[in-house]
Write a structure and sequence with these properties.
By secondary structure, the chain is α+β, with helices and mostly antiparallel strands. α1 runs antiparallel to α2. β4 and β5 form a beta hairpin. Strands 1, 2, 3, 4, 5, 6, 7, 8 and 9 form a nine-stranded mixed beta sheet that branches. The protein is built from three helices and nine strands.
């Protein structure tokens, strides 16, 4: 399944990144986060082969937002369970609070669901991500190095976490 260009409104288009977008994606992440850490993370996830999906939001032909999803796992007593990490999500400061990040999340989750992915994990603002179905309650059976209030999960397939107990395993690029 591929992601076709989608129109959010008259000026915003969501699409998969292309190799020509990498500098603009780097600039968006540096501007949104005030430093290079997330831009470095993106490069390392790409280089290590862990990046699954990377979407951009274009406004009038310029990239204003970006989201990346990468492979991660949950280590259980029965073995590894595949999951997906949502990180990072970035929108240029002048375009924040206009719904661009939300549309990137929704389109990314739709894409992953179509690919058969079942579990997506995010570490983020506890007042923002629950709007998209992420839950700290669903994450209660998972151990992570992050604060409980910021560690959230969404099941793309209902019941995907039934009986899953274990420790999350991020790619080395995350440094955890």
């Amino acid at each position: 399944m591929s992601l076709n260009s989608a129109t959010v409104d008259d000026r915003v288009h969501i699409r998969s990144e292309t190799p020509d977008d990498q500098r603009a994606i780097q600039a968006v992440n540096i501007a949104a986060f005030g430093g290079p850490e997330e831009a470095v993370l993106i490069g390392e996830l790409r280089a290590s082969g862990h990046a699954l999906a990377s979407l951009v939001a274009e406004i009038d032909g310029c990239i204003a937002g970006h989201i990346m999803f990468s492979r991660m796992w949950i280590r259980t007593q029965q073995g590894l369970v595949s999951a997906v990490a949502l990180a990072p999500l970035a929108v240029l400061p002048e375009h924040q609070r206009r719904g661009i990040g939300g549309v990137l999340i929704q389109r990314g989750l739709e894409l992953l669901r179509g690919w058969g992915e079942k579990i997506v994990i995010v570490v983020g603002h506890p007042a923002y991500y629950p709007k998209f179905g992420f839950s700290t309650e669903l994450a209660r059976s998972l151990e992570s190095p992050f604060p409980r209030e910021a560690f959230m999960v969404i099941e793309l397939t209902p019941g995907a976490l039934d009986g899953v107990r274990g420790t999350v395993v991020y790619p080395a690029a995350f440094g955890v």
